Amino acid sequence: MPISELLPLIFHALYVIAAVAVLFGLTIFAHELGHFLSARRLGLVVETFSIGFGPAIWKWKRNGVTYKICLLPLGGYVALPQIDLGEEEGKEEARPPAAPGAGAEQPEPPPMPPAPPFKRMLVCLSGPAGNIIMAYILACIIYFAGKPSAPAERMCVIGYVATNSESWRQGLRIGDTILAVNGKQVSNWSDFIMELQYAGPRARIEARGTGGGLKTVEADTDRNHPLGLRTIDALSSVALAQIKSVEPGSPAAAAGLKMGDLIREIDGVPVMSPEHMIVMIADHDGLETPIMYERNRARHETRVTPIMDPKLGRARVGLMFDFDAVEDEVVHIPPMVQIRNHSTLIFRVLHSLVTPRRAKETAGQMGGPLMIIYMFQKVVRTGLIMALWFTCLLNVNLAILNLLPIPVLDGGHILFAAYEAVARRPVPPRVFAWTIRVFAAILIGLMLLLTGRDALRIFRLNGFTGAAPAAAPETNAAPAAPAAAPAAP
Asked: Which residues, 6 or more positions from 200, have their beta carbon under 8 angstroms from its beta carbon?
């Protein structure tokens, strides 16, 4: 590859890495800053403010507080000896031994008085509060700038259904609007996928056809998606047919189509998805076909003649599509609505975890830190605003999860403090210490389990998108979507 082509790829990769590190670090910083500021305001002693774990790559001490950035940016902690918050974060540093003097050993300083319960509760609440404040700031930026919105985020319309599938045989067609799954109404494709996770091996789908008639079908769900999601085979959402590249010398190149163009219509028929375009192109073998496309928000028309590819056994025009494309319309969602939507999603998942018939399905789809970072980098590649949107979601998620009444989390320490306030005596030190150790071990084990599963899923996902036949007319890259589509080169 020429250096002129390689350098942009390197710079883009460095940008993605830097953006993920900064935005993920911002989330941790907001949480720890909440603990830090409230502790200082309440007059508590602060020993350390750290972003990350492990060896320090930067350290600075001022007014008795050690500020540092550590090698592993997977969290952070504030060491507060009066409330054991450093132990809560799982990383409280041991005090260094006193420097030897010339004479007798120096006496150890007297122990600091423990903070009263209400101060401990306020400090523990302040970390999640910091994340909510950060989420609100990000939501305001997203509101004023406008968030790119794909069709599947605004509607639950079928963009492709294979003609040899059960869904097709029962009457579902491209352009139909899905209304409900097992009686639960859905408003967009994310709602539809979410309801499928709880539907079990078979789902009842209610839809409205393009002519206005209502349909009810029974469809099998499966877990063929690389992330373990329940989906319906050969069924996918409405999606943008945005060109990622044009094959040199192809009919598409001769027609003047370029990277970034959005294919809107073929022969007067709206294009509902890249998969839909495959079918329409195949039906126009050797025929000069009018194509309506959008470039820089302006509509244009050209004509292209598909040619038969003997290897595929169908006609093609020489296009590769961008399956990460999201910008079809810019929406301005009020900040509190964004936070409410994020919160609703998280509470819904938590509710499913404690609902017997849904717990196993939900637990099987959970991701850990590795999956968060993987999804983060994918979102960053789509643009800065989408990266801020994901960071907003991450802040709301961190705030809510940290308030769960689980030892080693903020909510667990609030529970200990509340017990002390009501019982007028602290939790016995041995009980407190062993509870923290046991739950810390469980949490670490869970993170290791999720990380291993995430690594396998990411491997499968990349194998799925790289090795499987593509779902676009002229590409080797298929979407990470649960749809079966005609093969492509």
From this structure: 221
Joined together, the tokens standing for residue 14 give 């460095």
Rounded to whole angstroms, the Cα distance separating 364 from 361 reads 5
Question: Rounded distance, CA 274 to CA 239, Å?
Answer: 7
| Residue for token pair 């990380």 | 451
Q: Which residues are CB-neighbours of 133 under 8 A, at least 6 positions away? A: 30, 34
Domains of the chain listed by start with CATH number: 1-45+80-89+113-146+335-463 (no CATH), 151-236 (2.30.42.10), 242-324 (2.30.42.10)
Position 140, amino acid: C
**What are 174's two structure tokens?**
């491209």
Q: Tens place of pLDDT for every residue, the chain, 489 residues?
A: 567 667 777 887 888 888 888 898 899 999 999 999 999 999 999 999 998 888 889 999 998 899 999 887 778 889 888 886 434 334 444 444 444 444 445 556 666 778 889 999 999 999 999 999 999 999 999 999 999 888 888 889 999 998 888 888 888 999 999 999 988 999 888 889 888 877 777 889 999 998 888 999 888 887 666 566 777 877 888 888 889 889 898 999 999 999 889 999 999 999 999 889 888 998 888 889 999 999 988 999 999 999 998 887 888 898 888 776 666 688 899 999 999 999 998 998 888 888 777 777 777 777 888 888 888 888 888 888 999 999 999 999 999 999 999 988 999 999 999 999 999 888 888 888 888 889 989 988 988 888 888 888 888 777 644 333 333 345 433 333 333 333 333
Distance CA 420, CA 51 (A): 30
At 317, the amino acid letter reads: V
**CB neighbours of 337 closer than 8 A, spacing ≥ 6?**
none
Number of other CB atoms surrounding residue 137 within 10 Å: 16
Q: What angle do CA 225, 230, 233 make, to 5 degrees?
A: 65
